[in-house]
Structures are given as C-alpha cells and as structure tokens.
Amino acid sequence: MKILVVGGGGREHALVWKIAQSPRVQEIYCAPGNAGIQEHAQCVEIEAEDISGLLRFAKKNEIDLTVVGPEAPLVAGIVDLFQEAGLKIFGPTKRAAELEGSKDYSKRLMRRHAIPTADFNAFDNLERARGFLETSTFPTVVKADGLAAGKGVIICHTREEAFEAVKVIMQERAFGNAGNRVVIEEFMTGQEASVLMFVDRNTISPMPAAQDHKPIGEGDTGPNTGGMGAYSPTRFVHKRLEAQIEREILIPIVHAMNREDRPYSGVLYAGLMLTGEGAKVLEFNCRFGDPETQPLLMRMKSDIVDILLAVAEQKLEEVPPVEWDDRPAVCVVLASGGYPGSYTKGYPITGLKEANAVEGVVVFHAGTRMRGSSVITSGGRVLGVTALGDTLEQAIARCYEAVGKINFEGVTFRSDIAAKAI
Ligand code: AMP
Ligand code: GLY
User: Fold this and answer.
1) Which pLDDT belongs to residue 150?
2) Which of 30, 150, 231, 240 lies at a 20 to 30 A Cα distance from 73?
3) Cα(285) to centroid of ligand 2, in Å?
4) Which regions of the chain carry the CATH code 3.30.470.20?
C-alpha cells in the first residue's frame, strides 16, 4: 500500500513511525513532514491546509489511504473532497469535524444529548456577553467559539478579567473569526484526562487514557500551550471511571452524531475533567492528540494500518480488538525559548542520536527541518522525547536521561511531566 500522512508535527511523526512498521506498507508520503519524518517517509512540500493540492497529489500518486493529523484540513472538508473523488481517507467529514470546529455547536450537542459537560452560555454580541458576566460567579471560563490552536480559552478569576477576555476575543479579534462568538462556561476543578477512541459509525475502540500537560510552566503554571508532555496510562482514570466515560460520554456521542445525521468516523478525542461528580467533557477534538499520540502509539501492539483502513472502510467491527502494551509510556516536549509566545527558529539541534540510543526511547520530531546535513529548529514545539518503561518511574527516568543529551539554543521543557501520577 501507499499511504499519505497529512501534517508535520510530533503526532504525525509518531503516526509515520508506527505505519512504517506495517508489513502492508510499501511507500509512505508525508505532507509537509519534518526532519524526523523523512527517515521513514518521503516528505512532500504541500501544506496541510492545501486540501486541493493534497487531492491532486493523492490522485497522481495513486495513494491507497490518506491519514489526516491536524484539525484544520478536517474542518475545511478534506475528507469530503477525497471521498467525492473515490479516495480512501481516515478522518471525519466536515460536518462531523464541527464537533471540534465550533465549541458552541459541540456544547449545544452535548446539552441536547445529556452528555456531561460544564454549564454554558454562548454569545455573538459583546454587550450581551458583558451583561451576562454582570451576574456571573467567578472563576469562569471564556472561550473563542472557533479553532484557536488550543489558545482560545481564558480562565477568568474576576469580572474585570472576564470583561477583558471577551473584549480580546470579540473586539480585538485576537483569534480572528474564531472570535465571532464566545462561550462562557462554568469553571470545573479536578484532574484532566484525554480519552481517544477509534470510531466508525457503528463501532468504537477506546484507547487507554492519557494525561496531557497544557501549561508551559512546572506545577501547571503560566499560559497554555498545545501540550508540553503526556503519559499513558493514567491512574486517575480507574476502572469505574473508565466505565462511566464509555457509558455516559463515548457511546452517547457516537449515537448523537448518527442521530444528527453527522456520522462520525476517525479518531475522536474527549478532553475530560475528572470531577467529584464523575468525568465531564471539556472539549471534543476530531483527531489524534498531540502529544498524547506519541506515548499511545509506543504502547500500541497491533498493526495500526489494519485499524486505520478498517475505520476508513467502515469495517472496524471486523478487525480483532486493538492490543496495547501494559507498560507505561511518557513523552516530554522540548520547545523553543519563548513558546507559546514568540520565538526564534533556525537553531541547530545536537545530541539526537545519543538520545535515541537510550533504552526504550524514541525521539519524535515536531518543529524541525534540515539545513544541509544538520537538523535545526523550525517551530514552537520542537521534539517529543518518548520512552516506554516497566514502571512509570522508569519511563520518566529514561525520558529525562534522553532529554539531557539534547541541546539547542533556548531549549525549554517541563521537568515534572507525569510527576503528579507518582
Ligand atoms: P479546551 O481547549 O476547551 O479543552 O480548554 C483548554 C484548557 O482550559 C483545558 O485543558 C482546561 O485546563 C482549561 N479549561 C477549559 N474549560 C474549563 C472549565 N470549564 N473549567 C476549568 N478549566 C477549563
Ligand atoms: N494535547 C492537546 C491536543 O492535542 O489538543
């Protein structure tokens, strides 16, 4: 088979790395890819958002299966476009991807189908949003409705902060059109967890739970990022919670999408808050998580191509259950100095070979590219150092041993990834 992976981050490197292990695969292409991905795949200079360029490429190169990493092409309708052309593709349609593309849609859907989530109100008018905040209690959470790369959520401890947040989103348009509407929701407390599942319209296959670390700073301080590290499994999602999540969230959301005539296919990611009243949904994402995918795929024992293809063909029911390694895996993200704010690119990275040589470790690349024969930084999140271990402690120790061997100007990472699980 010939497979095309769309995207160029750490998640896509993990996907390409795992796909390359399948005996069914002859050629892998990745658009646009990165310096790590090019070891397993032919990188193609087409941006992930250029969905018609990707279609032309897939037709010309007779791609058997396309796997989409990021949300933007899904929300733009890449799956519809490929399916109309008779090409196989893994991911939800544009209508189904609205589950991530619009928080307002997603929250209303959860409300209609009684899926546990924080109480909320949505506004497309600044004055009404302000009026509502006059009578709110604090803290409260203000969110841009549309896609904002994980940065459109502002936790507000006071009314003044909330007024400011609404202004930044709706008036100053810090997130562009994503700020046409705001969602204002109840503040929840608890541990967070990411539960991803493979879905076709009839069958679900949940993956083991993972935990992300969104804030840039140790002890979960500072601004949110795309994710500074993740590990799986997490003891916070114990057996009883796992059952509640499946019964009250995972199965109902698939039924809800069918009933609303937006059947879901691909990976569905439930971002959860584990509250005293059970798990509640923070958000749904219509794709694999980044960095959750890196530890998850290190733990996957099955051939991922069998699963991706079965989902794309709506035959998930026919493949044997996905097998997972019991051993835990941890991923520590190395980011550019200044991220998630502005940062400089183009610094050479050293120690990659030595880090990869640490037992149980794979270094997944995110924002990297080649300059001559050296690997240089080219994004905010640069690398995801990932390790399996017999215990979580061992996986953590292996990760940080490998992290210690890598260097680039301004390298930034959290030294407490997975620490709260010990
Ligand atoms: P989201 O993109 O909606 O998942 O939000 C990003 C992050 O903001 C989450 O991972 C939480 O840490 C935080 N957050 C979002 N919504 C809430 C909420 N209702 N209560 C508390 N924290 C929240
Ligand atoms: N790690 C968070 C996300 O992928 O959205």
Assistant:
1) 67
2) 231
3) 8
4) 191-318
Distance separating the N- and C-terminal Cα atoms of the chain:
42
Question: What is d(CA 140, CA 314) in angstroms, rounded to the nearest whole number?
Answer: 40
Task: Choose which residue among 142, 273, 285 to substitute to test ligand 1 binding: the one with the highest number of ligand atoms within 8 A of its C-beta.
Answer: 273
Q: How far is the CA of 125 from the centre of ligand 1 (A)?
A: 22
CA 295/CA 332 separation, integer angstroms? 10
CA distance 180 to 162: 16
Parts of the chain with a pLDDT under 70: 150
Q: For ligand 2, what atom is nearest to the CA of residue 212?
A: 1
Note the residue count of the chain: 422
Give Cβ neighbours of residue 24 (< 8 Å, ≥ 6 apart).
1, 303, 305, 306
pLDDT in tens, 218-258: 999 998 899 999 999 999 999 999 999 999 999 999 999 99
Give ranges for CATH 3.90.600.10 in the chain: 329-421
| Cβ pair 243, 407 in contact under 8 A | no
d(CA 104, CA 408): 41
For residue 314 the two structure tokens come to: 């709506």
Which pLDDT value is given to residue 161? Answer: 95
pLDDT at 151: 73
Q: Whose CA is nearest to atom 3 of ligand 2?
A: 289
Say how far apart CA 189 and CA 273 lie, in whole Å.
7
**Bridge-partner residues for 367, per DSSP?**
none
Ligand of minimum distance to the alpha carbon of 183: 1
What is the maximum span of the chain, computed from C-alpha positions, in angstroms?
Answer: 61
**Class of 191-318 in CATH:** alpha beta
Ligand 2 contact via 185 beta carbon (within 6 Å): no
Q: How many CA atoms lie within 13 A of 315 on its CB side?
A: 11
Question: How many angstroms separate the CA atoms of 400 and 397, rounded?
Answer: 5
| Alpha helical stretches, state H, 213-350 | 239-245, 251-259, 293-299, 304-312
Q: Which tokens sit at 167? A: 């202004």
For the Cβ of 212 lying below 6 angstroms from any atom of ligand 2, the answer is: yes
Specify the CATH superfamily of domain 125-180.
ATP-grasp fold, A domain (3.30.1490.20)
pTM score: 0.96
